[in-house]
Design goal:
It is a single chain. By secondary structure, this protein is mainly alpha-helical. The chain has one domain (2-209). Helix content is 50%, strand content 10%. It is built from nine helices and four strands, in the order ααββαααββαααα. The chain has a two-stranded antiparallel sheet. Strands 3-4 form a two-stranded parallel ribbon. α1 crosses α5 (97-103). The radius of gyration is 18 Å and the shape is globular.
């Protein structure tokens, strides 16, 4: 009953309440992003969600649009400012995802929505992560966030799906708040961390083929 009904009800109630309560924080953050990083304030990116259905993820932008003399974007490490790093470290860049939760694209708790390009590289077991809505936070994030190895992160996602319950979600929510407040195990350059899966799996495939 929790998986199929109550979880979604809690998502609606909690995300709506959070959007109202945190609206001053969201507004101030939006203004600061506009002043310090430019426009658009919200970063949109396609991600796979429930049953691999593609949706548009919303986050505050954390990088500038600085380009070289050829008009090409500079490396992420150059465009990521101190303010952008602060947004990532504090998880303030994730606040727009509350709208994704309210809409039904995401859940408060669940496997993080990763890049579409990763879909061909999941094992059959790892594909279970898409049998629930992706989350704002999840078991992998409170088990080391972006610093645990890829296979272990994905296994934590599957473990979450197989043991989904109200008590588990409550525990993850509590640990998430604790992790953010103490800034423990926070990977600021998440694009670099998330960029490893396809490379690792492709390298392994090439080695097997050879």
């Amino acid at each position: 009953m929790y998986r199929h009904f109550l979880k979604r009800l809690f998502d609606i109630l909690l995300s709506a309440a959070a959007l109202i309560i945190l609206s001053p924080v969201i507004l101030v953050t939006a203004v600061l992003v506009r002043v310090k990083l430019g426009s658009p304030v919200i970063f949109h990116q396609k991600r796979p969600g429930y049953q691999e259905k593609i949706f548009t993820l919303c986050k505050f932008r954390t990088m500038t649009d600085e380009r070289d003399e050829k008009g090409e974007l500079l490396p992420d490490s150059v465009r990521l400012t101190r303010f952008g790093s602060f947004l990532r470290a504090s998880s303030l860049d994730e606040l727009p995802e509350l709208w994704n939760i309210l809409k039904g694209d995401m859940s408060l708790i669940g496997p993080r929505p990763l890049l579409i390009s990763y879909l061909p590289y999941y094992t059959e077991r790892e594909k279970k992560r898409h049998t629930v809505r992706p989350g704002l936070t999840g078991l992998a994030q409170v088990s080391g966030r972006n610093f645990i190895e890829w296979d272990k992160r994905l296994e934590k996602d599957v473990e979450y799906v197989e043991n989904l319950s109200f008590l588990q979600d409550l525990k993850i929510l509590f640990l998430t708040v604790k992790t953010v407040l103490v800034k423990d195990n926070v990977a600021v350059d998440t694009d670099v961390v998330e960029g490893n899966l396809a490379e690792i799996r492709e390298a392994a495939k090439q080695q097997i083929d050879s």
